[in-house]
Amino acid sequence: MDNFEPLIAVFSCHYCSYAAADLAGSSRIQYPPNIRIIKVPCTGRVSVNHILMALENGSDGVYVAGCLKGTCHFIRGNYKAEKRVQYVRDLLSEINIEPERVQMYFMSAAEGNKFAEVAREMTEAVKTLGPSPLNKSKS
């Protein structure tokens, strides 16, 4: 499993974390190439089904990256997303799948370094867990 490279889906808020990813790229800050960014208007639009479908359709891990708490452009979207992420984590735990495969992060548009750091951290965490047992495409 040393050569296992996890595929990580990132639901990224248009206003903050997507801008942070853009800043990381334009600043040439390196982060793993296995990150697949899905831009959403607000993390509050990310449903439980979106997260589960990402895991089911090829992702070994998923994280939702939204605005800093208290700064959401849609007021409470990132709080809603945080609750949904926790629900998915609890659900995974109930079926004996590592809840660490799903995370929530908060960052501002000016935090390109943090975006890259989170991408590296999530990749390493999922790498130690191995391939997702929910992934239909690998079975």
Architecture overview:
With 139 residues, the protein is an alpha/beta fold. The chain has one domain (8-133): Rossmann fold. It has helices spanning 17-26, 48-56, 77-94, 112-129, and strands at residues 8-13, 35-40, 61-66, 102-106. α1 (17-26) crosses α4. The radius of gyration is 14 Å and the shape is globular. The mean pLDDT is 94.
What is the approximate shape? Answer: globular
Q: Give the overall average pLDDT.
A: 94
Q: Per DSSP, what share of the residues sits in E-state strands of 2 or more residues?
A: 15-25%
Alpha-carbon distance between the termini?
16 Å
Total strands? 4
**How much is the radius of gyration in Å?**
14 Å
Architecture per CATH nomenclature, i.e. the level-2 architecture: 3-Layer(aba) Sandwich
Neighbour order of strands in the largest sheet: 2-1-3-4
Series of secondary-structure elements, N-terminal to C-terminal: EHEHEHEH
Report the sheet with the most strands, covering strand number, pairing sense and barrel closure: 4 strands, parallel
Structural class: alpha/beta
CATH class category: Alpha Beta
Question: What's the structural domain tally?
Answer: 1
What is the topology?
Elements: E1 8-13, H1 17-26, E2 35-40, H2 48-56, E3 61-66, H3 77-94, E4 102-106, H4 112-129
Parallel strand pairs: 1-2, 1-3, 3-4
